[in-house]
């Protein structure tokens, strides 16, 4: 292709406050339709919106974390359009004077994506289309959102998904959003355009709306790059459109011709005073800023001597990072932090993800896993047996020690019984012995395997290796 894609992302992220942005309605997810509404969020005449202080604090926290420039005076505007899920006939948002501008998201050591702006706004309601009629649920109307707008400078679908993962990880670290994609707390619109390689002028873009999984973001963008590329290569022109992505067919389809901002007839909301942020308030929020993912990853690499990739994965989630640190502090130095990291990433995390555990109170808590790892560190069990014990722990939450005692899994470190079993195995396999003695060194592994099999994995592998080496050497003489 002689064209290159340029992608800009707009993320709507729901702030984790208990009440909505301009009224005291609760923000609980999954409540019966229209049970979290009041005259304010239903847009009744004569009502007055009042800004949620905590939502503003959360938004400021995000701005500080991404190094954005805070506007100490910003205003709320009305974005006017008619749609059944918008009871007021306008959305309260920030337009020409948002609360912050600029900043950047760190994706990894070499990749940063600059932001254009972040602004505060309320969410719309939701239309539900049944077979007989369409319904409106206004529970979501007035939910507090920040919209994070990136610069158009992302150049692939994979990079777009990486950016979104970093952003989601960040908002979760900051504790300002649960970043839950399935519940719609983190939604993405992607602007995609192509331009001739080597040129700087942006081509005509299309906007793909409401992508609700990282996988679909990648699929939709790749489809759109291909679609626009085909048109341009045949000498055609891109028509600016707002598109919907259909996850079943994997294609995008036009939803509406793209509106320009003047179509929305933005005007300052006369019901809301300007949003003013005092220096004291910003200072206070800045002091309370938690450790950010990048800094935490750097600390993990330094403190625990674990590989970059492990540190990045562990710190991608604040609760996972806390879990790792607490297991590590409970093993009393009996296993290296690297082993702890491998267990948390390789064994615990896949199960926790699959079973959708809440990482703040997982079914296998830090003390449980630490108990298992201590047995491993003390050579009471081998690492192979440790995995068996872990599987058992999943069934009933029993402690590792109880499982090992109940199933008699204690590792055999007694030299004489290991030696006896090795002699038995060598004698029972004369053909393999002959092959080994004639130079087929690989047969060594066969003997180890037999010993482990007959002992149900309970023999200490290091001892088996050394005694077996010795015994086979004797046979050679
Ligand atoms: Zn309300
Ligand atoms: Mn928006």
Q: What's the helix and strand layout?
A:
Blueprint: E1 3-14, H1 53-65, E2 69-70, E3 73-74, E4 77-80, E5 90-93, E6 100-101, E7 104-108, E8 111-122, E9 126-129, E10 134-137, E11 144-150, H2 157-173, E12 186-196, E13 206-211, H3 214-233, E14 241-246, E15 251-257, E16 267-268, E17 275-276, H4 279-287, H5 293-304, H6 308-314, H7 318-330, H8 337-354, H9 366-377, H10 383-396, H11 400-407, H12 415-428, H13 430-437, H14 443-454, H15 461-476
Helix pairs in contact: 1-4, 2-3, 5-6, 6-8, 7-8, 7-9, 9-10, 12-14, 12-15, 13-14, 14-15
Bound molecules: zinc ion (ZN) and manganese (II) ion.
Overview of the molecule:
The strands form 4 sheets. Strands 1, 2, 6, 7, 8, 11, 12, 13, 14 and 15 form a 10-stranded mixed β-sheet that branches. The chain folds into 3 domains: 284 residues, no CATH class; 115 residues, no CATH class; 62 residues, Arc Repressor Mutant, subunit A, CATH 1.10.10.410. The chain starts with a strand and ends with a helix. Helix 5 crosses helix 6. Strand 9 and strand 10 form a beta hairpin. The model has no long low-confidence stretch (mean pLDDT 93). The chain has 477 residues and is α+β, with helices and mostly antiparallel strands. The site of manganese (II) ion has 3 residues, from loops.
């Amino acid at each position: 292709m002689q064209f290159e894609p340029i992608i800009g992302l707009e993320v709507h992220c729901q702030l984790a406050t208990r009440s909505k942005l301009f009224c005291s309605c609760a923000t609980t997810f999954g409540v019966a339709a229209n049970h979290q509404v009041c005259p304010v969020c239903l847009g009744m005449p004569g009502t007055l919106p009042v800004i949620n202080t905590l939502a503003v604090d959360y938004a400021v926290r995000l701005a500080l974390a991404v190094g954005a420039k805070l506007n100490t005076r910003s205003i709320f505007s009305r974005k006017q359009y008619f749609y059944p899920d918008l009871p007021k006939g306008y959305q309260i948002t920030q337009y020409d004077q948002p609360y912050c501008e600029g900043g950047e998201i760190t994706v990894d050591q070499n990749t940063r994506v600059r932001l254009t702006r972040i602004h505060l706004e309320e969410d719309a309601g939701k239309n539900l289309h049944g077979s007989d009629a369409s319904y409106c649920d206004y529970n979501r109307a007035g939910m507090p959102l920040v919209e994070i707008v990136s610069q158009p400078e992302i150049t692939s679908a994979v990079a777009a998904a990486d950016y979104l993962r970093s952003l989601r990880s960040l908002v979760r670290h900051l504790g300002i959003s649960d970043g839950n994609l399935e519940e719609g707390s983190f939604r993405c619109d992607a602007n995609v355009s192509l331009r001739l390689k080597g040129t700087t002028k942006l081509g005509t873009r299309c906007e793909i709306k409401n992508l609700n999984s990282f996988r679909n973001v990648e699929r939709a963008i790749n489809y759109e790059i291909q679609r626009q590329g085909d048109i341009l290569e045949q000498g055609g022109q891109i028509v600016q459109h707002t598109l919907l992505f259909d996850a079943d067919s994997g294609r995008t389809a036009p939803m509406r011709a793209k509106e320009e901002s003047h179509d929305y007839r933005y005007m300052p909301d006369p019901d809301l005073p300007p949003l003013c942020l005092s220096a004291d308030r910003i200072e206070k929020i800045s002091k309370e800023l938690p450790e950010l993912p990048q800094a935490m990853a750097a600390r993990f690499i330094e403190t625990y001597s674990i590989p970059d990739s492990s540190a990045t994965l562990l710190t991608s989630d604040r609760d996972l990072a806390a879990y790792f640190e607490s297991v590590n502090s409970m093993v009393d130095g009996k296993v290296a932090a690297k082993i702890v990291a491998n267990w948390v990433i390789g064994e615990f995390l896949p199960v926790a993800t699959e079973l959708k555990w809440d990482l703040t109170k997982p079914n296998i808590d830090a003390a449980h896993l630490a108990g298992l790892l201590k047995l491993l560190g003390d050579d009471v069990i081998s690492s192979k047996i440790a995995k068996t014990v872990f599987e058992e722990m999943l069934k009933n939450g029993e402690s590792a020690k109880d499982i090992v005692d109940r199933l008699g899994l204690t590792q055999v470190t007694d030299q004489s019984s290991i030696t006896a079993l090795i002699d038995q195995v060598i004698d029972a396999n004369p053909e393999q012995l002959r092959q080994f003695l004639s130079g087929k060194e690989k047969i060594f592994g066969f003997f180890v395997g037999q010993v482990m099999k007959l002992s149900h994995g309970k023999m200490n592998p290091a001892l088996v290796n050394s005694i077996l080496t010795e015994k086979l050497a004797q046979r050679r003489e």
